[in-house]
Amino acid sequence: MRPSRPHLPMRPLWRCRNCGAEWPCQPARLSLLSEYQGNRTSLLIYLSGLMAEARDQLAKLNSHHVPDLTDRFITWARTRN
Ligand SMILES: [Zn+2]
């Protein structure tokens, strides 16, 4: 088996270090869902913290326009089983 590189965010751009997609990319979402299986509340708390951090950093990069990151960080984790 070849070792898989983790899909982690690259700050302050919040793109995936591995695949370059906006983080959390699909592989990152899947690995978070499996890591936090049975513990959805903790996952949502964790994602909320990251979303706040990403929002601050992205706003600074974007003339202080504050992006809405709820779908990107939260909605998928709340709705998927
Ligand atoms: Zn990725």
How many domains?
Answer: 1
Q: Mean pLDDT, nearest integer?
A: 92
Gyration radius over CA: 13 Å
Uncertain runs are none
**How is the main sheet built?**
2 strands, antiparallel
Describe the SSE topology.
Blueprint: E1 9-10, E2 15-16, H1 26-35, H2 40-61, H3 70-79
Antiparallel strand pairs: 1-2
Structure summarized in a few sentences:
This protein is mainly alpha-helical and 81 residues long.
Descriptive overview:
There is one protein chain. With 81 residues, the chain is mainly α. The protein has one domain (9-79). It is 52% helix and 5% strand. It has helices spanning 26-35, 40-61, 70-79; strands at 9-10, 15-16. Strands 1-2 form a two-stranded antiparallel sheet. A hairpin with a 4-residue loop joins strand 1 (9-10) and strand 2 (15-16). Helix 2 runs antiparallel to helix 3. The longest helix has 22 residues, at 40-61. The radius of gyration is 13 Å and the shape is flat. The model has no long low-confidence stretch (mean pLDDT 92). Bound molecules: zinc ion. Zinc ion binds at residues 7, 16, 18-19, 21, 25, 27-28. It comes from Micromonospora olivasterospora.
Keywords:
2 strands, binds zinc ion, Flavin reductase, about 80 residues, mainly alpha, 3 helices, two-stranded antiparallel ribbon
